[in-house]
Amino acid sequence: SYQRFIRSYAACASFADAQIGRVLDALEKSPRGKDTVIALWSDHGFHLGEKDHIEKFALWEKSNHVPFIMVAPGTTQPNTVCEQPVDLTVLYPTLLELCGLPADKEADGKSVVPLLRNPKAKWDRPALMTYQRGNHAIRSERWRYIRYADGSEELYDHDADPNEWTNLATDPRHEAVMANHRKWLPKQEAKTVPDLRK
Predict the structure, then answer these.
(1) Is the pLDDT of residue 3 over 60?
(2) pTM attached to this predicted model
(3) 3-class secondary structure per residue, the chain
């Protein structure tokens, strides 16, 4: 039943939380705990019925917003929250910088160390999400723009519509917003992974 599915989903999240707590408790007792960089992120979650969708295979906020927590001694401050959307391409360059290693010029992402130091720091790029070839979402602080492989588009204003119920893509008043987000779409697509072919 739907209720059992929801309970099982919540139980999985609670179990994962408990295990993370065990790791953090052990790290806190360890002699290296105060010098350890912690990066915690997760897979995206299920919709659980929102927008008549039960799975996570979509480009809307609910199925793309993931937990992303970083603790970096000497860089981050406790209980700091950054509202700037970033995607997971930031992980590798951020860890390189935090570990004092040289930047990788071939990396797609950009280090978020400036945001770790100051969550209000200027950030010049939105988050990019992809689901299969040609289907992408761009998430800036205020907007989620989606473009599908068939050319159809969606635009949501998170200031007014955080649950993404009203698609503004056909409203000509928002053409400049859409154009600003379109420029972040990938210019080149990776080949489809064989197990994701329909």
Answers:
(1) yes
(2) 0.87
(3) CHHHHHHHHHHHHHHHHHHHHHHHHHHHHCCCHHHCCEEEECCCCCCCCHHHCCCCCCCCCCCCCCCEEEECCCCCCCCCCCCCCCCHHHHHHHHHHHCCCCCCCCCCCCCCHHHHHCCCCCCCCCEEEECCCCCEEEECCCEEEEECCCCCEEEEECCCCCCCCCCCCCCHHHHHHHHHHHCCCCCCCCCCCHHHCC
